[in-house]
Amino acid sequence: MALVLPFEPNEPSIEALVALVKADMERVNATILARTGSDVAMIPEVANHLISSGGKRLRPMLTLACASLSGYRGDGHVKLAASVEFMHTATLLHDDVVDESDMRRGKLAARKLWGNEASVLVGDFLLGQAFKMMVEVGSMTCLDILATAACVIAEGEVMQLAAAKNTATSEDDYLAVIRGKTAELFAAACEVGAVLGQRPKAEQAACRSYGMNLGIAFQLVDDALDYGGSQAKLGKNVGDDFREGKITLPVLLAFRRGDASERAFWQRCLEKGEGNDADLDQAIGLMTRHRAIADTVERARHYGAIAKDALALFPNGQAKDALMEAVDFCLSRAH
Amino acid sequence: MALVLPFEPNEPSIEALVALVKADMERVNATILARTGSDVAMIPEVANHLISSGGKRLRPMLTLACASLSGYRGDGHVKLAASVEFMHTATLLHDDVVDESDMRRGKLAARKLWGNEASVLVGDFLLGQAFKMMVEVGSMTCLDILATAACVIAEGEVMQLAAAKNTATSEDDYLAVIRGKTAELFAAACEVGAVLGQRPKAEQAACRSYGMNLGIAFQLVDDALDYGGSQAKLGKNVGDDFREGKITLPVLLAFRRGDASERAFWQRCLEKGEGNDADLDQAIGLMTRHRAIADTVERARHYGAIAKDALALFPNGQAKDALMEAVDFCLSRAH
């Protein structure tokens, strides 16, 4: 009689990506630390509050991994990866002011500790440092890609402002927002890795497409988790988006699929911002009934699949495997 | 018997500078208009509210004039001048959020009309566009100068936050603040003009020094005017700095030169922010008694003189004359 061993499927993990870029990532971290330095003491204080708060540093890892995938042998990827992380951190600092957030990654938001002023200005400083590092790397193409990303990110955020409180936002409009505010930096982070490696245009575009679609999937899973994750997993509370009246895909789907009284509920809670904790329970109930969270994850899977197919041009190997698994990992966060 | 004609001394004017760069400036204005365009309607609305509000566009004029002084014959100065104005506009938008200002250039501040969110994000967009234009010009040296300026400006503003409400700030510390928040962009605006003209290092440094010292003089005169100008001249009210509790050189001088009871007055009004309109009258009285406003202008003259000597390396001509007169014009605003 055979012994039945407990079957444990291999959970997708980010560990292959972490291992791939480990040595480079240590240099990126040292660069980040060095480049937040300033004689003006408040700058490293505010910057490091957020930078050292345990973000995954997924974006700089993508730059390093795409440089590795592209066979790049120089040093520029380290500074570009740090630039990408600085651009991301600047966005978070500015977002907290825009959203009037109290928490970020499970800690008090910088603006609660040092004020809106410091968040705006330290964000500006980091953006300046990001461009200084790009200049040091010296690739005009990479500068172009990341400067364009800076514009597109801001456009995406402004679009989100304009769409805010509108529960009838179309899914396409919502996608345009998250392409800008989230996916564009993923796309740029990946593309510059391939540009450094001087890969043919088609492969640069493939890395960009991988990043763009991974970024969309990442944001959609994040949106889903906000109605079903635990605080520990997210560093924010379930229902934060709901309480802030943010219109995300789970809301859009539940609104569209609901009847008139349900739509009135969503409008009261989100457009008028009157939702309380009992309303949050009802919101999650409605989303579950209409499969709004599950289908948001389903949409994310679609973009994840595009991301993986984008990399098909590249030969198999450690870098490609790690990037492929990173997609599955991002999707698996939704479980 | 001789007829006595009313004697009118030639007031220094900005007109020579305006005339020198007129044709180029039209292209800069067209570029500015084109580059604030976005499918996201709120971006041009917010940007143009401020951009079309009748700033003098001194900084882009300086870039054009220094390019002319340096014999530059290309097209890059137009986009760099527009970049400089975008960086300035982004700073103003972010400053309004930081200062919680209600007015800017005699109009309601953008943040009062569209909210802090829009001011932060449209500022970020303009900064991104500025870097995109620099990339299009393609001079890595100019990119380096302007990226460094972006960092130094943010550092200066953060320094100002840290010095805020401290009436015992030293004059040196105050100078460090205005070098960063104001003079650095003047310096960079001038330097990139000379870099485009591929002038020898000494002449690039001369243009930078001209801009830096002009910028300091400009800010000091602005500080003086806040206690003695008219609203029409400034687009802001006399006493704005006082009401916002801003520590500027006229305050620092009056504080240092005053007795204990006067120092208590300054601390009550500025550190505790309790100053009212009667206090403003007293503040101006104390400044007058201690020559604090006049000596602020005197300090400005010192930096103005350095700015003019910096240009001595260049041959006489229309561009040099216009830049020299611009210094006198900035100083003459104080009358």
From TrEMBL, chains A, B:
Pfam families recorded: polyprenyl_synt
Gene Ontology MF terms in the entry: all-trans-octaprenyl-diphosphate synthase activity; metal ion binding
Keyword Cytoplasm (UniProt): no
Keywords of this entry: Magnesium, Metal-binding, Transferase
Reactions it catalyzes: 5 isopentenyl diphosphate + (2E,6E)-farnesyl diphosphate = all-trans-octaprenyl diphosphate + 5 diphosphate
Domain of life per record: Bacteria
Keyword set includes Secreted: no
InterPro entries: Isoprenoid_synthase_dom_sf, Polyprenyl_synt, Polyprenyl_synt_CS
PROSITE patterns referenced in this protein's UniProt entry, alphabetically: POLYPRENYL_SYNTHASE_1
Cofactor(s) listed in the protein's UniProt record: Mg(2+)
Any one Gene Ontology BP term: isoprenoid biosynthetic process
Enzyme Commission numbers on file: 2.5.1.90
Function statement: Supplies octaprenyl diphosphate, the precursor for the side chain of the isoprenoid quinones ubiquinone and menaquinone.
Family: Belongs to the FPP/GGPP synthase family.
Protein name listed in UniProt: Octaprenyl diphosphate synthase
Protein species of origin: Xanthobacter autotrophicus (strain ATCC BAA-1158 / Py2)
